[in-house]
Amino acid sequence: MSVHTRHLYLALCLLALASACQRKPSCKYKPAPVFEAGLPHILSYQYQQDGSRSLETMELDRGILLEITQDVCADTRQEFRFTVPGNFASMPDSLWLREASRQFVFLSSFSEKQAALQAWGDVIEQMRGDMKLGEDREVEPGVFVRVDKVVSPEQGVLMVVLSQKGE
């Protein structure tokens, strides 16, 4: 193979590799909204979807901003972010875990469609004594829950990630 041919071959390989990296994976599933406008406790609601990802944003009547991101492809991931004004820096980790459970029980009461969220609240409550903030906890094979927090003097953010790893 001549030097010119090798350079051309190398350039074509790099171009093919670069284009493969830029392609989005083909996902057979699309996320569905967890909530909808007009439900009790929801003051404002917005849902945006881009392929296999979505962002659901709502302001609740308890002064909580709830954002739910979903990514459903080979793996499934839902992240619930509850943002509340105030300084929660002194709140112990055990109370963040209890609050995660309480929030899911509260969300399950909005309508029949959200009733399944009660089960996540129950799982978090049952595992609370063994859970640590920021760590994935396997609740059944391939299914995980993680509770975490971000605090500042102005607000606290409770994050709950529900995920399922594909095989």
Mean pLDDT: 86
Uncertain residue ranges: 1-23
**What is the global morphology?**
globular
Order of helices and strands: HEEEEHHEEE
Describe the protein:
The structure is a single chain. The chain is α+β, with helices and mostly antiparallel strands and 167 residues long. The chain has one domain. Helix content is 28%, strand content 35%. The chain has a seven-stranded antiparallel β-sheet with strand order 1-2-3-4-7-6-5, covered by helices on one side. A hairpin with a 2-residue loop joins strand 1 and strand 2. The N terminus is likely disordered.
What's this model, at a glance?
The chain has 167 residues and is of the alpha+beta class. It has 3 helices and 7 strands. β1 and β2 (53-60) form a beta hairpin.
Kindly list the characteristics that best describe this protein.
alpha+beta; 167 residues; seven-stranded antiparallel beta sheet; 3 helices
Furnish the topology, listing elements before pairings.
Blueprint: H1 3-22, E1 42-50, E2 53-60, E3 65-72, E4 76-85, H2 93-108, H3 117-127, E5 137-140, E6 143-151, E7 155-164
Antiparallel strand pairs: 1-2, 2-3, 3-4, 4-7, 5-6, 6-7
